[in-house]
């Protein structure tokens, strides 16, 4: 742990905000519910494991988050809350999640000072396919961003898997009308908490940027689309958003719920509420081993919380009119080939043809030929085709639609790992250590390698994210001016060892998908997910 330093606050400001410091540098902040004690680490103050809701256990399980009861004694905010229950997998980008409990609805704050300066606020939503991940992850440490950018960084947790996305309304009636979207409602509850309390941590509740990676970016897109989140944020950053896990309609979500209840041995929600956390996890494991697979859970288009597919709403111009920064990594699906040992580069050509034909029909062979001509070997062509299918085209379709209505900035992250262990290239999640400034963490080094230019790239990316959060424009020192995206120039910032503006990067590959909306409905979740397979079975 970094050594603690004493911080001096003007007494008048401390009294006004309910913040004070003791002789060790620990700080006490009076929030709406009661006093919290954080600690000083280096140049920032840190408050961990702040509960924004009561533990969703017993009768509160499968219900929307309930606010915590107020308290009077000073509560320590020194330790991370447990991760929300999940099936922990072996993954270098998902560390520290094995400590878990249902008392997980919490957030963490890093601030330069708990004063009245009204700094920009950056709220991060973690990824993990709606079934894993947590704000305990050391890659999401907000200290570097907070210190370098003079911003307040918040990370939050939300219910996952069956506990966060089990749609029970057609089985149990109106009492369970929102259960298919509890994880999204948890995110909204956390954002409301930020609006009520962040000013006491030195943040400006009128300048909040939400940002997320992978399904965290998908969550950002959903929050942009749905009415319940309107006004809770003012800018949005989406890192590697995908159309894969965008949700289910009520029919499919109900089928999933019935299958889960069957493997859990439950007749109704009362049985599910009596089960232990381990029993819930065991049932989820059995479900993942069934035809539904591990991409089962996600938001439900329930006409209540999420009216219809969020991407379709955004493409129709129904989302929040806020500045947006979004983009993808050059070799996104290399991640699955290396992390999950799926030999995607060796996918049989006949299987590749059939999978692409499900989406493009008779255009499939010509489309594959475009990627084959662009890459020296077949394996790289498969990786780049899959990257566009799962990630880049979703981002491009969103940029095309949003750029007509609001400031929109696009990027392509091209740094390729120099790890001597595995060929990661510019895989999914590769940008995260650069965004959070944790490139010297040993786990991060194993992923990114030790390229001597990592430090320069980290500063460029952090500067861009910070400036976007402050001003709504990512242009920053060291980068060329960053134009807004439009459908004529398609200006995109390449972020890599060389950072530059490129108009319409990889145009031939982009044109392959003309006419495919990538709206969360077409292509289907099953069609896109099947690509992450080395055989003809659905994954």
Structural summary, described in words:
This protein has two domains: 1-322, Rossmann fold (3-Layer(aba) Sandwich); 334-460 and 473-539, Rossmann fold (3-Layer(aba) Sandwich). 34% of the residues lie in helices and 15% in strands. The protein has helices at residues 11-17, 143-149, 161-165, 169-172, 182-197, 215-225, 250-264, 269-274, 277-288, 310-315, 334-339, 349-360, 364-374, 378-402, 432-436, 442-448, 454-471, 507-512, 525-529; strands at residues 19-21, 27-30, 35-41, 44-51, 75-76, 106-111, 119-125, 152-156, 203-213, 235-239, 248-249, 300-301, 324-329, 408-413, 491-495, 500-503. α2 links the parallel β7 (119-125) and β8. α12 packs across α13 and α13 crosses α14. The protein is globular, with a radius of gyration of 23 Å.
Task: Provide a brief overview of the structure.
The protein is α/β, with parallel strands linked by helices. It is 34% helix and 15% strand. The strands form two sheets. Strands 1, 2, 3, 4, 5, 6, 7, 8, 9, 10, 13, 14, 15 and 16 form a 14-stranded mixed sheet that branches. It has a two-stranded parallel ribbon with strand order 11-12.
């Amino acid at each position: 742990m970094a050594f603690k330093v004493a911080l001096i606050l003007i007494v008048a400001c401390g009294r006004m905000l309910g913040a004070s410091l003791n002789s060790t540098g620990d700080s006490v902040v009076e929030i709406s519910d009661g006093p919290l004690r954080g600690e000083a680490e280096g140049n920032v103050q840190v408050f961990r494991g702040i509960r924004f809701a009561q533990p969703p256990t017993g009768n509160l399980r499968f219900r929307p988050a309930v606010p915590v009861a107020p308290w009077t004694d000073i509560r320590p905010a020194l330790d991370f809350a447990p991760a929300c229950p999940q099936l922990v997998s072996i993954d270098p980008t998902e560390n520290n999640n094995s400590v878990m409990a249902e008392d997980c609805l919490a957030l963490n704050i890093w601030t330069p000072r708990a004063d009245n300066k009204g700094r920009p606020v950056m709220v991060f939503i973690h990824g993990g396919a709606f079934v894993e991940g947590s704000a305990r992850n050391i890659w999401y440490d907000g200290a570097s961003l907070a210190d370098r950018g003079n911003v307040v960084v918040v990370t939050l947790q939300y219910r996952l898997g069956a506990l966060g996305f089990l749609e029970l309304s057609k089985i149990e009636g109106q009492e369970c009308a929102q259960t298919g979207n509890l994880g999204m409602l948890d995110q909204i509850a956390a954002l409301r908490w930020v609006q009520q309390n962040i000013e006491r941590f030195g943040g400006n509740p009128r300048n909040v940027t939400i940002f997320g990676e992978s399904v965290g970016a998908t969550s950002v897109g959903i929050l942009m689309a749905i009415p319940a989140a309107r006004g809770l944020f003012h800018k949005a950053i989406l890192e590697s958003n995908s159309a894969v896990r965008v949700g289910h309609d009520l029919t499919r979500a109900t089928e999933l719920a019935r299958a889960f209840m069957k493997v859990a041995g439950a007749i109704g929600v009362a049985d599910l509420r009596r089960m232990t956390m381990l029993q819930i996890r065991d049932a989820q494991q059995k479900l993942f081993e069934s035809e539904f697979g591990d991409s089962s859970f996600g938001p439900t288009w329930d006409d209540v919380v999420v009216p219809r597919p969020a991407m379709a709403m955004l493409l129709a111009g129904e989302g929040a009119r806020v500045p947006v920064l979004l983009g993808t990594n050059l070799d996104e699906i290399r991640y699955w080939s290396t992390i999950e040992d799926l030999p995607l580069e060796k996918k049989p050509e006949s299987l590749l043809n059939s999978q692409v034909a499900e989406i493009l029909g008779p255009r499939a062979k010509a489309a594959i030929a475009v990627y084959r001509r662009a890459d020296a070997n077949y394996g790289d062509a498969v990786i780049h085709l899959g990257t566009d299918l799962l990630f880049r085209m979703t981002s491009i379709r969103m940029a095309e639609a949003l750029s007509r209505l609001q400031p929109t900035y696009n990027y392509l992250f091209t740094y390729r790992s120099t790890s001597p262990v595995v060929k990661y290239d510019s895989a999914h999640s590769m940008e995260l250590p650069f965004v959070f400034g944790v490139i010297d963490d040993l786990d991060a080094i194993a992923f990114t390698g030790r390229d001597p230019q990592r430090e320069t790239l980290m500063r460029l990316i952090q500067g861009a994210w910070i400036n976007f959060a402050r001003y709504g424009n990512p242009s920053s020192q060291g980068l060329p001016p960053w134009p807004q995206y439009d459908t004529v120039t398609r200006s995109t910032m390449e972020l890599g060892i060389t950072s530059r503006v490129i108009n319409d990067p990889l145009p031939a590959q982009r044109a392959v998908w003309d006419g495919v909306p990538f709206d969360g409905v077409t292509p289907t979740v099953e069609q896109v997910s099947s690509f992450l397979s080395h055989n003809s079975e659905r994954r």
